[in-house]
Every structure is written in structure tokens, then in C-alpha cells.
Fold:
Amino acid sequence: MKVCRFSFNGKASYGVIENGVVYEIDDDPFSGNPVDVKKKGEGVRLADVRLLAPSMPSKIVAIGLNYKAHAAEFNKPLPEEPMMFMKPSTAVIGPEDAIIYPSHMSHRVDYEGELGVVIGKRAKDVNVEEAASYIFGYTCFNDVTARDLQGKDVQYTRAKGFDTFACAGPWIETDLNPLDVRIETYLNGEKRQDTSTRDMIFDVFKLVSFVSRVMTLLPGDLIATGTPSGVGKMKPGDIVEVRIEGIGTLRNRVADRLSA
Structure:
């Protein structure tokens, strides 16, 4: 099932997508089991709505160096446990929204295509074997990064935390096997990243368990599971797409601060 947030006639709602039609749902989908989501109304064509970021997370927990080739790309040793950092909720944007290039501080901004995990219920000290039951679904994610600032700062907060640096969407797919799906990133139509989640060092269920032993995860929170090799720079005017098998395509343009 595809669950989305959308705007139609000035109203933002949660909905489900079926055969190119968006149906509004009665309740917050994170308030119960996704299979119990109830549709209402006749629906609206997907082409006639504006899709928003698919959840409103209290936080985004991101994982660094979770693919062997990406660690090698930056000459980093493989981590012995997941390397966590955070992105603020104010960084979240949805499909077709503009990534604002912070040229007042950075001169190297990169794309990082990733699988995003959307939490479905409050999770604390979760066992790996139980982790799947805490996951609502999966989405495409772009962990936009000011690479020059990442190298300059000890912490990743500034490099990862600018407004618009957490792109998510286009919706949440609730029916997906996250252990072997293809992730691709395209810049202006040219493929730059292409791998499978089977190459992760720590799989999705291990990540949910690990993060939940550090902090409580709330419904709608996002875990960005790490990017494969092939990251690279963007500039204003570029179009970046994260395509994940079984989910869809997250598309964003890059804009200058003055022209956005």
C-alpha cells in the first residue's frame, strides 16, 4: 500500500494511492496498523494533487558509512557499529520541492540517495527480531550534504542540517522487503549511484534496533539508512532523482537561495 501526504485545494491530508487516484483517509495513519487505514470520498487524480513529505518526523536519524563501497570511496574503515547522526525536522521537504543551495556558507553540496525507514509506533529497546513490527513502511530519501563543511566541522550538524537538506518521498510503501532492493540516484538524467540494500553493512532491522536502544523513536520518525558509493556534487539548476525499486522516484531541483 502506498500512503502519502498531499495538498489539494489548500488542504493538507494523509491519503492512500490506488491506480493513480489519491483517497483521503480518516485518521493519522500512524495511529494504528496500516492495513486498517480507511478511505473516504471518491478520490482525486494523483496528477491533480501536490505530494508533500510523506511524514512529519520529530527527528531524522541518519546512518553514515553503511555500504562497504561508500566507506572505501572516502578511505574510511568499516564501522564496527552503526555510525549515527541527526538531521532536524526543519530540513524535511517533499517531492518536487527545491533544495536550497546555501552558497553563503558552502561551495560543495552533494546528493546522497538512500532508503528511508518510517517508524510506525513508539520504539524503545527493540530486539532485532521484533524490529519489523515497528516499521510503518519505506520511502526514498536524499541526505543532502554540504561536503566542504562536513570535512571542516568535527560534527555533521551544520553540513547535514540546512533547511531543505532532508528530501523524502514521494510516498511510503508499506509492502517492501528492505533486504534486497535496488537504489539508484540520477543527476540531470545521468545515473550516478546504483546498488542494492543487500550490500548494507547493517541491515534495516539491525538499525531500528540499534537506534531504539539509544533514543525513543516516535511514529513518523525517519531513519536514513546510509548511501552507497557514487555521491557527488550538485549545483543550482540541477535535477536529482532517487529511484528505489518497489517504491518510486523522489525528484527535487536545486535552487540558489535568491532564486528559490
